Amino acid sequence: MSVDVQTVKRVARLARIAVSEDDAQRMTGELNAILGFVEQLNEVDVSGVEPMTSVTPMAMKKRQDVVIDGNKAVDIVANAPATEEGFFLVPKVVE
After folding, report:
1. pLDDT tens for residues 47-63?
2. pTM reported for the whole predicted model
């Protein structure tokens, strides 16, 4: 697959990028080189190759999916200007 100047201009217009005629000519060559490289990659036989999430093998760290209170209630309430029995104390507002 190759692209021409018209295709480059159309893609630039769709992406809302201003492209001059000189830039369109240059980008045509660059995009064709990129597409040529992708075609080369498509020729590589990858059957039997497992997908990777990293270049180095590693085990994913997992935690149990349980609901906890975080054991931070005392630390959080300590920042409040007024507390009572472990709860925030706020002024009563009646309108």
Report:
1. 988 888 788 877 878 88
2. 0.48
Alpha carbon distance 64, 26 (integer Å): 54
First to last CA, the chain: 71
Residue 8 CB-density burial (10 A; 0-12 exposed, 13-18 middle, 19+ buried): buried
User: Angle formed by the axes of helices 5-14 and 21-42, to 10°?
Assistant: 100
- What was the pLDDT predicted at 50? 84
Burial of 62 (0-12, 13-18, 19+ CB in 10 A): exposed
Beta bridge partners of 83: 88
**Length of the chain (residues):** 95
Residue type, 19: V
Name residue 87's beta-bridge partners.
Answer: 84
